[in-house]
């Protein structure tokens, strides 16, 4: 499954970059994320509850950041196991471009694979669910940064 | 004495013999919810098993940790390949000469492959246990596309046989190659192509699908440690074969194994094979000393036990410019999945696919089939067809239409021009079969007249013009198919399963009051054997069908037989019934001659007894003869009236039929409407016309499903994306078209009652008929072949690719 998109976030590039590297912000923004713990600068462990069609499963796994080019781009890779529900793995290339001093355009391309029961039962729902989740994540990120800027 | 006040017609009607639309006796219990299926078997202390299955299509199994599972309340055991190795059962032989993992041994080769078997006190606990087993996988490159299986750098799937140069059917060319099977004369065929006026070539795929009976595969195994006896209740289309296979695998004496197939809720080929669930339940019962039940759920059934088809057929026909076929050349790439577990007679790795010359007089033909491994479920069963016969019929019927299109001839006319003629039977086909009988021209013409074929073509021409003028967005297709099946496997000279010749059997025992019981080696899964078998006996020996009880499925009481699949029951067991009945009749005739004080030759059979020729009042009925047989037989004759017959058929039978479908497709939505479907079947002698009609309705509905959407689809990473009835098309009454049925009768010359088998014909003839209708609809827009299944989306896509959607 491949997805790509663009979001305009009303925050300076530095703030967006910082948020994308902050486990607490990521945890708040990833839909269904119950835990996200930093192991090192580039490694985290995560627990995400996903619901696709008739299947609801808790995925536990590793998240790794790579190709770091602050504050312009990075890749985020993840792999999670959901027991008998199956597994999910994937990654996103994220890049940031300044749109004036107070705004940033975030572009992403996502490649993800799912396997096991979620793929068998949720097949026709996976693409739309993934698009919805990606949309939610960036909407959350925008809200979060706006809150921060309001707070500052 | 019989009641002579009745007329001959009344006496005959009372028998409800062959030709009678007798109501199905088994339906009395089925329609009242009183059937007895495997899941109804509930034994004291019975345990339940369930599988841990692989989410990956190809992966190394690094570790299996059962610790947490064993702590789940109710879980008693977790069986893995390591456990099975202690009893030498981690792998099992397949019917096709390959071996198959019972539980993952080091790696998994398809999604949902069995990895561990959890045994618990109830099904819920077993499921919780399954969720708690921790398996660590290391994913490997996945091979899904059969056309990439033989690439030099294709992933190695079967490490267990990587150095094996020879398989069960000859040399292997590649690590993912199973066999190459060739039939026919290559040189003569090539020569025919070299001098042909016209040739066509098309890659015709018959996609992977699944028999999907409503009742899934299941069993209850109970091992008696004191007697060392194993009893298995299971959904078995071939109970005796299962007993023999279990005996060979488990090294138990055959008399210590009792296999019982109770009522079965549909089989369609899915219940022929032996599956890991059976082995695991049996081992679990031996280990725990308690009965163990295993019942597949729907996803497991669709994704793990026995798919069907997955044949990719590159087909070429050579012909004269007048439309006379001169040669046929077919290469098949046969996707067998991870293990070769096809349920074909052992010497036939591609089943009877060499019936691919169909109903046409091809002077020469050449066929090559390459079987290959991929990361998909094993199987390859004959889903409501004789072995690979539906693939063959689809191949030739589609190809004939493509040839007609190239020649600008009407497809029905092309068929009539090339049919084997009535005087050519018995007909020897270029690929080695001897067709027993047929009258194809009569059947085709009757079909064409019945649907007013010429008028339909005129209407289609007018609609096409209207479409071109932009007056309609609907296109009309007329599908024609004319199939010849090969069923009734089979003669021992060319058919066996693991060395067991494919005869079948019947044992009839008449009781003193003129009633009786008949036991068979076959096993009904809904075909109505309890009804039809009694009808054959009724006609043969004049005992009313209502007075004959038919029993099947218990290996302790039924005579040995090879079971029910491939439309073999009527051609083989049906013949055994007639032969056993005739043995009884012969003894009855001796008794009647003695009692009527005449020579046997002076007697003639008259509906339900013997009459002295020329003396109509001197008559002895079968009811009386039965009593005499036990209580006052002629001196020197042993008492009793029973007989057994084991029937080894001299040839297969060759049912045929002409089907026509009329369909309209909306190019903007891809939505199709089946306006009309007419099916003419010739199955030889018709035993019960009502059951035949029911069989044809069911078979056509399955054909409709397959052609128009039913598919086991894998994505590129090996996920099954059609693993439930949400995505796997099973038509309900809402989608199912109305069926019109018709018939001709060309009895089989070598079968005792002339019957040929019918249950699978509509699937064999129906699939090409639907597909030809879709292809015919699109042909004027420039397409030659659109692959099945023809669901709305694919129709819309085809319309768009052909420029019909703006």
TrEMBL record, chain A:
InterPro entries recorded: CO_DH_gsu, START-like_dom_sf
Organism: Mesorhizobium atlanticum
Transmembrane segments: none
Any single Pfam family the record assigns to this protein: COXG
The protein, known as: Carbon monoxide dehydrogenase
UniProtKB/TrEMBL annotation, chain B:
A GO term for molecular function: iron ion binding
SMART domains found in the cross-reference section: Ald_Xan_dh_C (SM01008)
Function, as annotated: Catalyzes the oxidation of carbon monoxide to carbon dioxide.
Every Aldehyde oxidase/xanthine dehydrogenase a/b hammerhead domain range: 32-141
Cofactor: Cu(+); Mo-molybdopterin cytosine dinucleotide
Keyword flag Nucleus: no
Top-level taxon of the source organism: Bacteria
Assembly notes: Dimer of heterotrimers. Each heterotrimer consists of a large, a medium and a small subunit.
Keywords assigned by UniProt, alphabetized: Copper, Metal-binding, Molybdenum, Oxidoreductase
The protein's Enzyme Commission number: 1.2.5.3
Catalytic activity: CO + a quinone + H2O = a quinol + CO2
Pfam families with a match to the protein in the record: Ald_Xan_dh_C, MoCoBD_1, MoCoBD_2
Source organism of this protein record: Mesorhizobium atlanticum
Protein name listed in UniProt: Carbon monoxide dehydrogenase large chain
Main EC class the enzyme belongs to: oxidoreductase
């Amino acid at each position: 499954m491949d997805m790509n998109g663009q979001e305009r976030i009303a925050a300076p590039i530095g703030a967006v970059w910082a948020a994308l590297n902050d486990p607490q912000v990521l945890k708040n923004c990833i839909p269904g994320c119950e835990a996200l713990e930093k192991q090192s600068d580039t490694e985290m462990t995560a627990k995400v509850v996903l619901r696709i069609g008739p299947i609801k499963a808790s995925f536990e796994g590793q998240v790794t950041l790579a190709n770091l080019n602050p504050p312009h781009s990075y890749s985020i890779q993840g792999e999670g196991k959901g027991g008998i529900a199956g597994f999910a793995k994937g990654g996103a290339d994220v890049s940031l471009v300044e749109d004036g001093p107070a705004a940033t355009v975030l572009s992403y391309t996502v490649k993800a694979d799912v396997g096991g029961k979620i793929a068998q039962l949720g097949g026709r729902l996976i693409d739309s669910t993934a698009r919805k989740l990606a949309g939610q994540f960036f909407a959350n990120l925008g809200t979060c940064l706006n809150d921060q800027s309001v707070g500052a | 004495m019989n009641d002579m006040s009745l007329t001959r017609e009344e006496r005959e009607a009372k028998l409800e013999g062959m030709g009678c639309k007798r109501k199905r006796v088994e339906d009395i219990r089925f329609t009242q919810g009183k059937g007895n299926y495997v899941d109804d078997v509930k034994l004291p202390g019975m345990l339940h098993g369930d599988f841990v299955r692989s989410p990956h299509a190809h992966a190394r199994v690094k570790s299996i940790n059962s610790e947490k599972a064993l702590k789940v309340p109710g879980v008693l055991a977790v069986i893995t390949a390591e456990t099975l190795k202690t009893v030498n059962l981690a792998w099992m032989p397949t019917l096709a000469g390959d071996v198959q993992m019972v539980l993952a041994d080091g790696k998994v080769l398809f999604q949902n492959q069995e990895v561990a078997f959890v045994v618990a006190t109830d099904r819920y606990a077993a499921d919780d246990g399954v969720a708690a087993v921790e398996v660590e996988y290391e994913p490997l490159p996945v091979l899904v596309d059969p056309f990439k299986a033989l690439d030099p750098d294709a992933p190695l799937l079967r490490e267990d046989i990587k150095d094996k140069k020879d398989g069960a059917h000859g040399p292997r060319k590649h690590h993912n190659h199973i066999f190459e099977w060739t039939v026919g004369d290559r040189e003569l065929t090539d020569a025919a192509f070299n001098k042909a006026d016209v040739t066509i070539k098309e890659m015709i795929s018959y996609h992977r699908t699944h028999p999907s009976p409503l009742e899934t595969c299941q069993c209850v195994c109970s091992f008696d440690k004191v007697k060392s006896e194993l009893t298995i209740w299971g959904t078995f289309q071939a109970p005796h074969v299962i007993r023999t296979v279990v005996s060979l695998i488990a090294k138990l004496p055959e008399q210590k194994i009792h296999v019982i197939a109770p009522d079965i809720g549909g089989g369609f080929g899915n219940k022929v094979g032996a599956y890991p669930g059976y082995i695991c339940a049996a081992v679990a019962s031996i280990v725990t000393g308690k009965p163990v039940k295993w019942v597949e759920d729907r996803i497991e059934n669709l994704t793990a036990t026995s798919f069907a088809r997955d044949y990719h057929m590159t087909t070429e026909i050579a012909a004269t410019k007048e439309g006379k076929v001169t040669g046929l050349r077919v290469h098949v790439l046969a996707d067998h999945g991870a293990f070769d577990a096809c349920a074909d007679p052992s010497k036939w790795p591609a089943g009877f696919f060499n019936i691919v010359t169909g109903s046409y007089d091809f002077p020469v033909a050449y066929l090559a089939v390459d079987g290959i491994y991929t990361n998909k479920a094993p199987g390859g069963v004959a889903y409501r067809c004789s072995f690979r016969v539906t693939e063959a019929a689809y191949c030739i019927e589609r190809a004939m239409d493509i040839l007609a299109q190239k020649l600008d001839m009407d497809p029905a006319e092309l068929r009539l021009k090339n049919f084997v003629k009535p005087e050519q039977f018995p007909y020897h086909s270029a690929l080695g079969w001897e067709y027993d009988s047929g009258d194809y021209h009569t059947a085709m013409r009757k079909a064409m007249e019945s649907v007013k074929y010429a008028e339909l073509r005129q209407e289609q021409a007018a609609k096409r013009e209207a479409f071109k003028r932009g007056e309609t967005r609907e296109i009309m297709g007329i599908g024609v198919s004319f199939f010849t099946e090969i069923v009734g496997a089979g003669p021992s000279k060319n058919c066996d399963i693991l060395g067991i010749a494919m005869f079948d059997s019947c044992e009839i025992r008449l009781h003193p009051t003129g009633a009786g019981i008949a036991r068979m080696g076959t096993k009904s899964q809904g075909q109505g054997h309890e009804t039809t078998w009694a009808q054959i006996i009724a006609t043969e020996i004049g005992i009313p069908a209502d007075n004959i009880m038919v029993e099947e499925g218990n290996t302790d009481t039924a005579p040995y037989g090879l079971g029910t699949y491939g439309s073999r029951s009527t051609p083989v067991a049906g013949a055994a019934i007639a032969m056993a009945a005739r043995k009884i009749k012969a003894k009855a005739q001796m008794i009647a001659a003695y009692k009527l004080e005449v020579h046997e030759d002076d007697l003639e059979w008259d509906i339900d007894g013997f009459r002295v020729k020329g003396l109509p009042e001197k008559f002895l009925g079968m009811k009386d003869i039965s009593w005499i047989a036990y209580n006052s037989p002629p001196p020197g004759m042993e008492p009793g009236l029973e007989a057994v017959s084991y029937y080894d058929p001299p040839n297969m039978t060759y049912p045929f039929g002409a089907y026509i479908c009329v369909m309209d497709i909306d190019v903007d939505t891809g939505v199709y409407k089946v306006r009309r479907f007419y099916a003419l079947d010739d199955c030889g002698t018709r035993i019960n016309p009502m059951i035949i009609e029911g069989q044809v309705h069911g078979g056509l509905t399955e054909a409709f499903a397959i052609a128009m959407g039913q598919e086991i689809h894998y994505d590129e990473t090996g996920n099954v994306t059609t693993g439930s009835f949400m995505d796997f098309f099973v038509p309900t009454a809402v989608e199912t078209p109305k069926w019109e049925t018709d018939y001709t009768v060309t009895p089989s010359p070598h079968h005792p009652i002339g019957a040929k088998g019918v249950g699978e014909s509509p699937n064999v003839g129906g699939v090409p008929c639907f597909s030809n209708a879709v292809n015919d609809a699109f042909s004027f827009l420039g397409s030659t072949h659109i692959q099945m299944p023809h669901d709305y989306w694919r129709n819309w896509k085809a319309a768009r690719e052909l420029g019909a959607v703006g």
